[in-house]
Amino acid sequence: MKTISIAAFSVAALASSGICAQTVASAYEGLSVAINVNSSNVTVQVTDPVGGTQSSVSTADQNIVVQIAKGQAFGSNGVVNFGAWATLGDMKSASVGGLQLKATGSYGIYGELGYAIDRRSLAYAKLSYNQLTADLTGGGPGIDQALSATGFGYGGGYRHALGNGVYLQGELMQVNYAEADTAIGLRFKPSNTVGMVGVGYKF
C-alpha cells in the first residue's frame, strides 16, 4: 500500500511539473505568419548640394504587408521574435520639383522583445532593418532612375490571440532611411511613419 502511494505521488508530481513548464510566454513560441494592412506617411527630404537648398514632400497611402516570424520564450513572461516582411504593390507617387517619386517596394528583417501579459496578450518593442526601392521619373531631360535606400525602424505593438492559432496585431513604427543620390545630383532622404493592423496564424 505504501509503495502504491509513493508511485501515485510521483506521477502527480511529474504531471504538476509538466503544467508548470507551460509558462505564459510559451504560448508565443513557434513559427507564425501574418498579413497586415499598413497606413504609411512617407516624407522625403530633398537636398540640392549645388544650390544648397532643401525642400520636403509627403505622401500617404495604404498597402498590404506579409510577414513570417519565429518566436522563442525566455523566463515566465519574456518572448523574443525574429522575422522578415515585405510589402505588396506600389505607393502613390509624390511630385518633387517637376519629378515624380514613387516607392515601388519595401522589405526587411526585424526583432521583437515582448512581454506576455497572459497566454492571449503580448506587448512588444520592435527594431527593424529596412530596404526601400523607388522610381524617379520626369523632368526636362527625361529622368528615369531606380533608387534604393536602407534604414532602421523602431516602435512597438500589441498581439492578441483569438484561439486555434489565430491572432490579431497592431503596431506603430518610425523608419528613418539614409540618403539616396540621383543622376541629376539631388539627394533624397525618406522617412516613414507606419501604423499597422493585421491577422496572423501561429503554427
Automatic annotation (TrEMBL):
Q: Which GO terms describe its cellular component?
A: cell outer membrane
Instruction: Give the matching InterPro entries.
Output: Beta-barrel_OMP, OMP/PagP_B-barrel
Query: In the UniProt record, does the keyword Repeat occur?
Result: no
- For this entry, the protein name equals Outer membrane protein beta-barrel domain-containing protein
UniProt keywords (A-Z) are: Signal
Pfam families per the UniProt record, alphabetical: OMP_b-brl (PF13505)
Where found, per UniProt? Cell outer membrane
Q: What is its main location?
A: membrane
Q: Which SUPFAM superfamilies match?
A: OMPA-like
Q: Identify the stretch annotated as signal peptide in this record.
A: 1-21
Q: Outer membrane protein beta-barrel domain location, by residue?
A: 12-203
